[in-house]
Write the structure tokens for this entry.
Amino acid sequence: MAKLKFHLDEQVSRSVAEGLRRRGIDVTVTPDVGLRGESDLAQLEFAVEQGRVLFTQDDDFLALHQQGVEHCEIAYCHPRSRSIGEIVAGLVLMWEVLELEEVHNAIEFL
């Protein structure tokens, strides 16, 4: 079984990525992989190609899910509803208990 890997879109604080990396979790961020300014669809395509759960605070991704766009999983947190620490803790919990094979096209709300 494969451990979850994450991709954070450009709306997400870099501190979330740093918190995950400090715990040994594989994470990419939009600016570092050359996707700054690219469409939400391009972000999802990258995440699928890389086998990554996309974490976002942009509800446009929820609309893409509703339209049936394929993704590994979308982890979503409403903006300003959780602290960075709470977001990191939620993503770490997902990493600890879920396997990539279990989450295809799922949505996880933090």
About this structure: Residues 44 and 71 are 6 Å apart (CA to CA). The radius of gyration is 12 Å.
